[in-house]
């Protein structure tokens, strides 16, 4: 990782494909609540993914997770910082994981969105541990992956209870 910290910009976004994806197709450049805006940007893509079979959904999320390690790591390195708030590909993947557990319908998209954001922001254990102790692209991705799993479990339990 370089010593020179940079702020992401639209020029930076298009300077490398990893930056474009790492910054969530530009959604991370909002400057205000980039994680929330990154998760919002993940919703329309989820609606396309949700049309696929469960196997294809899982494969898309697996591939997005693995390549996200590279995208996020490369973007962080080029920004000269560990996990700049503008890096939001991890929010895309975390939200998609949450939604694997959801019944169909907009109500569940909204509930899944809220649950994922709560877990991602509050970072209960083990998310907080992973956030502090795992570094690089994997570190950027893993806490949101676990937040997605935990939010998904809560979503599933909530759906079963209703």
Q: Which helices and strands occur, and which strands form pairs?
A:
Layout: H1 10-13, H2 17-22, H3 34-49, H4 54-79, H5 89-100, H6 106-122, H7 127-133, H8 136-161
General description of the model:
- With 162 residues, the protein is mainly α.
- The chain has one domain (10-18, 34-161).
- It has helices at 10-13, 17-22, 34-49, 54-79, 89-100, 106-122, 127-133, 136-161.
- It is globular.
- The model has no long low-confidence stretch (mean pLDDT 95).
Structural class: mainly alpha
Tally of extended strands?
0
How many domains would you count in the coordinates? Answer: 1
The ordered H/E elements are: HHHHHHHH
Q: Main beta sheet: strand number and arrangement?
A: none
Q: In terms of quaternary structure, what is this?
A: single chain
The radius of gyration computed from the alpha-carbon positions, rounded to a whole number of angstroms, is: 15 Å
What would the average pLDDT be, to the nearest integer?
A: 95
| Tally of separate helices | 8
What fraction, in percent, of the residue positions are helical? Answer: over 70%
Shape: globular
The stretches of 5 or more residues where confidence is low (pLDDT under 50) are none
Portion in beta strands? under 5%
State the distance separating the first and last CA atoms.
48 Å
């Amino acid at each position: 990782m370089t010593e020179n910290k940079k702020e992401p910009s639209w020029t930076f976004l298009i300077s490398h494909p990893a930056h474009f994806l790492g910054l969530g197709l530009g959604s991370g450049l909002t400057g205000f609540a980039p994680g929330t805006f990154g998760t919002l940007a993940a919703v329309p893509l989820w609606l396309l993914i949700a049309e696929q079979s469960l196997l294809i959904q899982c494969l898309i999320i697996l591939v997005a997770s693995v390549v996200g390690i590279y995208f996020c790591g490369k973007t962080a390195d080029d920004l000269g910082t560990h996990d700049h708030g503008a890096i939001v590909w991890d929010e895309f993947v975390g939200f998609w994981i949450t939604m694997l557990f959801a019944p169909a319908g907009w109500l569940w998209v909204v509930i899944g969105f809220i649950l994922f954001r709560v877990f991602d922001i509050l970072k209960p254990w083990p998310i907080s541990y992973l956030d502090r102790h795992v570094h690089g692209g994997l570190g950027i991705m893993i806490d949101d992956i676990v937040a997605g799993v935990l939010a998904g479990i809560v979503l599933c339990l909530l759906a079963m209870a209703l």
